Amino acid sequence: MNEPARVEIKPEGIAIVWDDGHISLYAHKYLRINCACAGCIEEWTKRQLLDPITVPADIQAVDYMEVGRYALQFLWSDTHYTGIYPYETLRALCPCAECKAAGSKKG
After folding, report:
1. Residue 76 in contact with residue 59, Cβ under 8 Å?
2. What DSSP character marks residue 21?
3. pTM beyond cutoff 0.85
4. What is the DSSP letter of 6?
5. I want to staple 47 with a disulfide (CB 3.0 to 4.6 A). Which of 21, 34, 42, 78 is the partner?
6. What is the mean pLDDT of residues 46-57?
7. Measured between alpha carbons, how far is 56 from 77 in angstroms, rounded to an integer?
8. What is the Cα 92 distance to its own chain's centre?
9. Nearest to 1 by CA among 82, 85, 72, 91
10. What pLDDT score was predicted for residue 50?
11. How many CB atoms lie within 10 A of CB 21?
């Protein structure tokens, strides 16, 4: 499993440098909308409860913390903080062209 070697909150998004050298840059709003906590996703059906339209365009990650050796948790400018983003999920959400192409080959 890949782990972050470095995490940096930037104005344009959250940058993660992975231990294999890959660099992911996630727009703040993209990660906030993809929060999988119980307040944002229905537990049994996995239906999204969070309406993406309600997430402010200028949402920012204010801070983050590591959760064990498997995930990151972000504090968002809308005061949301309960989402845990496992490394595996973050890597799967990587929006770069290389990862998107690899993901489309799996399906």
Report:
1. yes
2. S
3. yes
4. E
5. 42
6. 96
7. 9
8. 9
9. 91
10. 96
11. 8
- The 10 Å CB-count burial string (b at 16+, else e) for 60-98 is bbeebeeeeeebbebebeeebbebbbebeebbeebeeee
Give the DSSP letter string of 29-98.
HHHHHT--STTTB-TTT--B-S-GGGS-TT--EEEEEEETTTEEEEEETTS----EEEHHHHHHT--SHH
Tokens of 40: 């944002």
| Structure token pair of residue 58 | 């200028």
Q: Whole domain around residue 74: which residue ranges?
A: 4-106
Domain count, the chain: 1
Place of tokens 């595996």: 88
pLDDT band at 104 (very low <50, low <70, confident <90, very high): low
Name beta bridge partners: 9. 14
User: What CATH number is given to the structural domain containing 57?
Assistant: 3.30.2020.30
- Report how far residue 87's alpha carbon sits from residue 55's, in angstroms, rounded to the nearest whole number: 23
